[in-house]
Design a protein that fits this description.
single chain, alpha+beta, five-stranded antiparallel beta sheet, two-stranded antiparallel ribbon, 11 strands, globular
Length: 352
């Protein structure tokens, strides 16, 4: 007998219906642009208010949460040095452009590099004046009592002592010194009396002594700039940046009667960057080696095409290197050491 195969029916398991997946609607491009613009505007407002983690004086706009390391440096830039002369070419001095920007109302000016207190244009012009150009006494000398009228001639006599009156008149005769310590009545001849001399236009007439017009420093005389910047390491971009915050015009010590450097005013570098880039063909860094490759001053600062010695680094006493280490030579040596230290700090963050 031949056995017939038995058919086994296998029932397929019941399948659960697939859950409905709700498809996300594509976001319109217009909404994305609006959100981006709102975010940008929000970041700008937060940066201006100073509560959004971005320093309002920073022109790089790096968030505080992205800064892994920061140290503030002050540098002295002497525009007479060979490396800095492109910023100080004839009729193209950076100090000239800064002064013109303030007087034209394009730049704000501050009392110091903290950039908290604005300086009026009148005060700015006053800071540019030579000291005691009016030929008189300073305010400190006047407060000390100099220049006050006194009847004492310093020898116990009275310089304003009047001569005895003539008989029959109620007036006092004019007196003149006879050369022997006495005084005699000054005789005048009515025939020789002349009227007051009129101005004949030749400049030989006597004039009253008065202070001349105030004299300002020329832009060529303002040869020192002080730079305040932050050396920071950005953890997001994994590189170091020099974030310039302020530039300060300094009157050099040899141009002042005080014998030391005198600051004129400070500028926010963020404003200067926009000011320089507003006219790329005017605010140029002069390239004497290739006149076809002049650069804008803003680009020259970004490319660090200048030489500025480090004179102070952030410390608890806010002291300069020369004050900390006791001398100009010691301060110069320490300045070079700090430069190499910053360079090695960035180098040692990398592995090859």
């Amino acid at each position: 007998e031949v056995e017939t195969p038995v058919e086994i029916q296998v029932q397929a398991p019941a399948t659960q219906p697939a859950p409905l997946v709700q498809q996300q609607q594509p976001v319109p491009m217009e909404d994305t642009q609006v959100n981006s613009q709102e975010q940008t505007a929000s970041n700008t407002r937060r940066a201006e208010q100073g509560d959004g983690g971005i320093n309002p004086n920073s022109h790089l706009g790096i968030a505080e949460s992205d800064i892994m390391y920061r140290v503030t440096n002050w540098r002295r830039m002497d525009l007479r040095e060979k490396l800095n002369q492109p910023f100080f070419s004839k009729n193209n001095e950076i100090t000239r452009y800064l002064i013109d920007g303030v007087r034209s109302g394009l730049l704000k000016v501050y009392t110091n590099d903290s950039l908290t207190t604005e300086l009026s244009s009148e005060s700015f012009s006053k800071n540019l004046m030579y000291e005691n150009t009016e030929g008189g006494l300073s305010e400190e000398e006047k407060a000390a009592g100099f220049g006050k009228a006194s009847a004492d001639d310093g020898w116990g006599g009275d310089t304003k002592k009047a001569a005895p009156a003539k008989k029959g008149t109620g007036t006092t005769a004019a007196t003149e010194d006879d050369g022997w310590g006495g005084s005699t009545a000054k005789k005048t001849n009515p025939k020789n009396a002349t009227a007051p001399k009129q101005n004949d236009g030749f400049g030989d007439e006597p004039t009253a002594s008065a202070g001349g017009a105030p004299i300002e420093y020329f832009p060529q005389e303002l040869t020192i700039l002080e730079i305040k910047e932050d050396f920071i390491f950005d953890r997001k971009r994994s590189r170091a940046y020099n974030d310039i915050h302020a530039l300060t015009i300094i009157i050099p010590a040899e141009k002042t009667s005080r014998g030391f450097d005198v600051p004129v005013a400070s500028f926010r570098y963020k404003d200067l960057d926009k000011y320089f880039r507003s006219n790329p063909t005017k605010f140029i860094w002069y390239n004497s080696l290739n006149q076809a490759q002049h650069k804008n001053m803003a680009d020259a600062f970004d490319l660090r095409l200048f030489q500025a010695r480090l004179i102070k680094q952030s410390n608890a006493n806010d002291a300069f290197l020369t004050d900390i280490y006791g001398g100009e030579k010691q301060g110069l040596v320490k300045s070079q050491q700090l430069e190499y230290k910053l360079m090695e700090f960035e180098h040692n963050l990398w592995e090859y």
